[in-house]
Amino acid sequence: MAGMEGMEEMEQNEQRGGGAPVTDPRGVLRQGRAFLDFFWDIAKPEQEVRLTATESLLRHLREGKKDDELKYTLKRLVEGLGATREAARPGFSLALAQVLQAFEEIPLCSILEQIKEKHNLEKVKKKLVRNAAFGNFFGVMALFQSGRLVKDRKALLESIQLLQQLTNHQTHLRDLPRKTLVDITSEVPETVFEEVLFDILQGDLSSAFTSPENLHLLLVGMQKFPGVLKPKKLKKLFGSPTVVNKENISRLVELLKSAAKSEKEDKKLPSVVFDLLQVALKEGAFELFWSEVVENGLLKEKSGPVSYMCYRLLGSALPLLSVEQLQVVLKGKVMLHYGEHVVATQFPQGFKFAAEMEGYIDTFLSGCDDPERQLAVMMGFSTLTNQGKPVLLSASRVVRHLQAVALQKYICWLKDMFLRPDLDCCLDFSSNRRKQNRENADIAQQKIVRLRKWIIHRLVNITESATRKEESLVMDIARFCFFHAFFVAKKKNSQIAEASVLPSEPLNERDHTEIENYFFGLLQTLNTLPVLGDTGETASLRGKHIHGVTADGKLWVLLLVEYANKLLSSEHVKAVKPFTKEQKDIWDRTLQSAKNLQKKGNKSDSAKVGAFQQLLLSMAIHLFKNQSETVDVLSDLLNCTERAFSKEAKKKKKTDNSEPGWVEVMVEILLSLLAQPSLLLRRISKSVFVWICPNLTKRGLQLILDVFDPNQEQDEESAVVVMEESNKKTKSAQDTDEEGSEDSSDEDNTDSGDEENEEVDENFRTQLMKVLQAGNTVEGDKSDEELDDEAMMALDKNISALFAEQQKRIQAKKDEKDRMRKEKILRRDFKAKVLDLIDVFLIKQAENPLVFDIIEPLLQLIEQCMSSDSDKQELDFLQKTANIFKNSLCRNKQYCKRVAPLQEDVHALVQRLVQKACKHSDSAVALYYFSASLYLLKVLKGNTSSTPPEPEKQSDSRAKQACQLLNPGCLNVKKVAVIYQEALTQFLSKRNSPLTCSMFHDLFKRFPIMCKPLVDILVEFITTAARQHQQAMACMLLHKVLLLHELKLFITEEEWEQLITRSISQVTECLKTLGKPLMKAEKEKVAKSLELLNFLLKTVTGQKLNVKLTEVEKVLVPLSQLEDIGNSPRLDSLYWNVMRWLNYTKPKKEKPASKPTQGEELLKKKKKGFLPETKKRKNRKKGIQENGVAPGEDGEPAEEQPLGTETPKHKKGLVPGGSKKHPNKGVRENGVAKVDGGDHPTANGDAVADKKKKKRKRKNRKRKGAAGNEAEQVPAAKKTKGSVVQETKQKETQQKQNKAKKKRKEKQAPVQQE
């Protein structure tokens, strides 16, 4: 703010004509505030505002070309360099730099002199030293950013000298001058550096080892000007020809530590460190620098900033190092230290450097073209292991930048490390806790397991991440993972590449399971992998979004199945889980069927063939994982395939409908696969369903819809397998929904559960009594002491057995409840997966007539979900169903165009939907039913959307649009009109209707063809509606219908005039029935009626229709007298808008001059702080007389004091009877001071009055406290009845009267002069 205030003062001084080097300052300032606002905007904290203001200022100066404005601008900008606000200083500096760059005729030396003069560090006050220092610094920055400083040697020399002076103000500027000095030096040509700057900077260069800034200056000079700073000059400067040598190691370490701590907040590598690395490489002393300075020097400093600086130096050094130097660095202490840091900061509270290091690796690999260096870095970070597991993430995407050669070698190295783990080549570390918990023998085996798991995941991820991969490379990885997941080599075999090398450490069952899981993830990737290759054919296939095939069109999974068949027929390998004879037969049948499908593949049946082939081969691969269950699925699938592609099936299709077709069998198989826990099988099922969607039959669709039908009867054909991880349970569609509905009623379950518990408790009590009676403990004649030890032991045993049995029953019930809960979750998940198939069908087959069969089941599912539990899973399922209904069905732009054969069925469906919407109790569910009916209207009507008309053919496009609106398509307008007329009648007549006004508004807006049949009902119900609210709804709907321009296409001019006439008549009749006190519903009816009437009268006037308005006028004129309309601003405005069309104007209300009442006059005359006259005199006189005290000599009453108090006047002796010198002179009677009749001169006279005026505020503050304190100290005298009354009144008004009494006393009390 100080900077802005300074600007204001400067503007005022310039307006007064004070000391400005401007010829006509008043001429500059008289141009308006627009020019001055530029400088205010430059000082604002928002960067965009500052940049915009700078551009505007430059544009103004270029266009104006006025010298006085330019001089004023330079003065303002130079002064703003030292502004107090941090955001203002760089803003003025940038603006000054832009001005100097735009106007090269301005000499830099003169600007520099102005800066020095304005921000003189020697003359400035101590409080403004900081501002002056920043003013000089930002001034030099402006000169440097202008780009002209390097060309002007004199200005450059003075700027460097000024920066050197600013280095003494480190408390304010810190290291900014040194950094700026380095930046300027790096931009200077070598000749200028040698001739101008070297002599000035010689002192800084010679003291390079005293501060990181000076060292940085030296390192920049050595790199930029090697011809000037030769080894001989360096020796003269600081005694050695090189920087990195053994003598300077300790000093370099200390300087780098200091640099690390100064840059810790920026979280970046200090520039001096990177420059020192470059100089060390140039001097050939990199090994010395890395080992002595970094590893043995910096790493011993156990501090975060220094460690992070070492890590950043490691990442930044990668592009500069050779292969040999990379191997030294990647096997050194810094890497080991970095690995320990990554493992230690896996918890959320630690600062994680791993992501930053991965960024360094990514930058290096993307910019490096040498495959050897790329491979060295990847191998180095892959061998940094923690207990055998590499620190580098196995899912890291840095491999996408590897060259093809480097990628191939890296994959070969990974495979070799998997088969023959070489832990000696790894830079391994472990935490102390792991060292203590594990034995040495177990550690080595555990390291191998962890390393192999990481390698398999790394190989699988390469197929996703690598961009320069080839088909052979991907297939090599897939074969490697498949072999080691399901097979073991008996001995070496050169024919099988994966069996050519035997593992040095055999794989156990756990290893095979891990690799198996990763392999199926790889198989999922292969099924979605785009076509690889750079040829034109592969590019065209990628353009068609074909996935899961090679360049020659073969499926990836087919290649894997062929490879698996080769392994099964080989004698040199054996399966981890060998096939039985039945499984081997199924395998052979599957391969043969896949080959037959490959031969039958043609363009017409390509989708069908691809679906069966994909599913067959995927299930064949699953035969290696889950043999028992996969055999049954494969058997059904093979039968389905044979039936689908056999010639006899096509002949029987027309005659025999009892046997399910191949599509139905395929749907059943897909439903069973959706229940599997395998994500791969679920995705395959979804992709296969996309292929068979065009061939889906009504029976096949019904199988899917039966999953959601709670009333479906239980049979074997509709059985759906619902599986948990360990327990597999088969449930029918009926059982799933019945149990789900039972669980949804929590209250019934809790009640029945309580009754069962009571029964169980009673049974348990009876059994316990029997056990006790058997031990003879219930009889009254015998006591517990009569039982011997054996009887007691037997009794205890029986009781414990009884309680154990009871505990088992309780646990069994808990387990049953838990099982039911889990089954409910599984059933809901299964339904959500099946719902995905419905979504796929609605999107892919939107023009299929089977879409109509999905509408009602979807609506029933929504209705069922709304009436069930409100847990999160149920709400998510409801949201998903509703989104599919709205987006995939109702809002889909594609719909069935072959409706002609199904007209009657679709019209019947519309009727059912509207009737259900009318009968439903929930308005939200009714909205879904009504929306479905509108979707069917869209289908029957056809495509009613019109494209925007072209300018040349606007009339033709309008004619086409009109034809589209008038063409009903397959819609039976009369039949549908009857349906919606019944619905509209119910909406306007029934009390609790689920229908809403927005539903019918949507109907009229989307289908104007329905307006004419329904508009008569709206006109009729303006007066005949059952309730006021419904009359208002009728008026509003009629108003919206009349506003539609499309309505005139369906009615003639005569019908239009008749409609307007009848509408006016109905509204008039409606307004006749108004009662005098308008209720809330009536007010709403009046508002809607007036809005409609306003439109009707406007239409009559605008179109000059022959409508008589005399009856309207008779009804409307008396309404102006209703207070409810006049008091409501909305109704009043609507009323006079209507009357305007009848040539009535709203009378202007003259505000009558309000005469103030007597009380208001008194309040106005009464001064602030004074009491009313009634209380001021009468009460005081009454109190004085009752206390027997006479008034003062001039007729004014003597000043009253509260009982037991005295004012400051009494204390100072200024009031008679209150003198300190004569305490007995003032006699108190009944606690009130008695005043004599004689003259008693007042001490000090006018001097006292002056003193009162000076100390009035202080006395007013002390008065309340003094009175309260004295009241406590002085005991009160005996009070009479009058004094008690007076005291009570005084206490109530004392605090309000003190100030007024004081002023009045000073004005009225006579002051005697001596």
UniProtKB/TrEMBL annotation:
Per the record, which residues fall in region Disordered? 1-26, 716-760, 1148-1314
InterPro entries membership: DNA_pol_V/MYBBP1A
Mark out the compositionally biased spans (Basic residues). 1164-1182, 1209-1225, 1251-1265
Indicate whether Nucleus appears among the record's keywords.
Answer: yes
Q: Which UniProt keywords apply?
A: Nucleus
The record ties this protein, via PANTHER family, to: MYB-BINDING PROTEIN 1A, MYB-BINDING PROTEIN 1A FAMILY MEMBER
Name it: MYB binding protein 1a
- The protein's organism comes out as Cyanoderma ruficeps (rufous-capped babbler)
